[in-house]
Amino acid sequence: MSSSSVVRVERDGELALVIVHNPPVNTITAEVRTGLKGALQQIQAGKDLRGVLLLCEGSTFFSGADIGEFSGPPKEEEYRHLFNGYEALSIPVVAAMHGTVMGGGLEIALACHYRVAASGTRFGMPEVTLGIIPGAGGTQRMPRLIGAEQALELIVTARPVDAAKGRELGFIDAIIDGDLRSGAINYLRSLVAAGKGPRRTGEMTVPAASATTEVFERARAQARKLYPNRNAARVAVDVVQAATQMPFQHGLEYETKRVNECKDSVESKGAVHVFFAERETRRIPGLADNVKARPIKSAGVIGAGTMGGGIAICFANAGIPVVLLDANEQGLTKGLATVDKTYQSMVDRGRLSADDKAKRMALIGTSLSYDALKDADVIIEAVFESMQLKRAIFTELDRVAKPGAVLATNTSTLDIEQIAAVTKRPQDVIGMHFFSPANVMPLLEVVRTTQTSDETIRTAMDLAKPLRKTPVLAKVCYGFIGNRMMEGYAREAERMVLEGATPRQVDAALEEWGMAMGILAVFDMAGIDVGVNVHKANASQFPPDPAYYQADFALHDAGRLGQKNGKGYYRYEPGNRSRIDDPEAIKIIAERARELKVPQRQHTKDEIVERCLYPLLNEGLRILGEGVALRASDIDVVWAAGYGFPRYRGGPMFHAETLGLDVLLAGMRKYQDIFGPMHWQPAPLLVELVERGLTIAQWEAQQRGAAR
């Protein structure tokens, strides 16, 4: 039988095999849909066919719909007609699945009459995390197969399940061990031999016991709890409920209507924006295509503390041998014990086998001598923030490292130009700023100096992939992108507690707005001493404000270091990270405010959010205008991937436009009138954009045009 470039139909006796090959992950693109439609027409016209098998070649069955189509005209109707066409066939249709079957990939399988899967296949409906709902029949077919309650659990939590769980729930009919294609053909032949015809999901009814009023009320409560400020999960509950109340085709049409409403929301546009922004970060304008990364087969990490150990874990997880170096045996022993504990917790939670743990631990060597790093392809320094210490380390690295080795510093604030200056190879020096805990947080700020070579940049950016990091390229300045923007955000949070707000009041307002964690709680987690040391070391970088970050200083002076000693902005019980309001902390901060004569004021939630966010957004525009970041979307990725900024708000620059650049400028000027110009100077780019009536995207397009 004939084929398209991505979909072909083969005959195997009385069976038709519809085989899809659209690498890398068999996304359901327009070309795939056209191919599937052509295949359907061939099957409808075929003679002597007794069964159809749908399968994909490559690493996975359909991974999902093409997210790139979200911003274009709606495609749901096309999906509906196509999937309904396969469901309407008069001979049994079997979907044979492997890999990671998500969203639209699972929805097409639900439209087939039977479903089999290779052992270990994973399934999920992640749509609500992108601000939408399953829009190709998932909300109508899944409840008919497994009941409304279980369907809601899959759709609302967006948590994937494996094949064994799918079989238990009832949307998988059989698990195939061995070769999937031959096993699925045998399964389909056995159906035909037994005289089993189509078993159409759309003709089933939702089991009444799974669809009580209590079930839907519970799902709505779960949606509100899991997704504050968001609507998609609640819409999903409405649409699943419609499956129990409407005829199947009406339910599908209602699903289409509601998914297209969701796509128009800021929530969906913001989440999709971040999704694509994360893929864009690796594209570096001005870096020629023929610049190749150096191969990285071995690594060294200097400093066996929390950060160094976490970075070593990243390399071991990537299968790259790494030597962890520290100044003394005690530091190494402690560091390696922490690494072991991290891996053991993964084993205990079933996320890693004991055998895999042993293999990864074996990739981490230790040494007290720099000579152990002489063969490393990349060496990352991860000691505490001291310019003197880092320059001493790089002097030593310049002596021992082989020619062409990438010499990276994990500094979060220091001038990398000064660090590179002590070497005879500044072209090989670059910043690789990991975020704590390094083995968990996805962000990697890659910081180039004026002398870093293109090859070194490409190597660091490409290395992010095996390390499972999202890299963002920045230029050298105090704090780079993320910490520089955090400076004003955190400054106002600290200023407000000096003005009489409680830590809980400030953090709760920020968390309610959508930040993963209030900034004062973040300081407690990171260690108040860390922030104090950074501000002491970089005093020359800050404005002459006697109250600057003084809440931190006051707590530090009183011996309060945060979670590490059980008291910071909050109090903590041993072994418990729950925040307990502490009158003593409030008293210490109030005393410092009196000494500094900080005027007291009442704070509404709106003021707390505005005073923290406006400086953050403003500084992002300053960074963009200065060219420290390549593009606005990179700034969004830094904050969404590294600082707990809500993805559904699209990152700080996306949010600035959602808010309105004119509103942001008016807000900066409002607080400038109240508090004076020192901290509230609007970024030149913000003023320019508002005066010229330009969006950020229009300004960026003009900059690209001017650069050509």
From TrEMBL:
**Keyword DNA repair applies:** no
Keyword Oxidoreductase listed: yes
- Catalyses which reaction(s): a (3S)-3-hydroxyacyl-CoA + NAD(+) = a 3-oxoacyl-CoA + NADH + H(+)
What protein name is recorded for this chain? Answer: 3-hydroxyacyl-CoA dehydrogenase NAD-binding domain-containing protein
Keywords for this protein: Fatty acid metabolism, Isomerase, Lipid degradation, Lipid metabolism, Lyase, Multifunctional enzyme, NAD, Oxidoreductase, Peroxisome
By its UniProt entry, which Pfam families does this protein fall under? 3HCDH, 3HCDH_N, ECH_1
InterPro entries referenced in this protein's UniProt entry, alphabetically: 3-OHacyl-CoA_DH_NAD-bd, 3HC_DH_C, 6-PGluconate_DH-like_C_sf, ClpP/crotonase-like_dom_sf, Enoyl-CoA_hyd/isom_CS, Enoyl-CoA_hydra/iso, NAD(P)-bd_dom_sf
Subcellular localization, per the record?
A: Peroxisome
Superkingdom of source: Bacteria
Which family is it part of? In the N-terminal section; belongs to the enoyl-CoA hydratase/isomerase family. Belongs to the enoyl-CoA hydratase/isomerase family.
Q: Which residues form the 3-hydroxyacyl-CoA dehydrogenase C-terminal domain?
A: 479-572, 608-693
UniProt pathway annotation? Lipid metabolism; fatty acid beta-oxidation
Under the heading PANTHER family, the entry gives: 3-HYDROXYACYL-COA DEHYDROGENASE-RELATED, 3-HYDROXYACYL-COA DEHYROGENASE
- Organism in which the protein naturally occurs: Steroidobacter flavus
Looking at the record, the residues that make up the 3-hydroxyacyl-CoA dehydrogenase NAD binding domain are 299-475
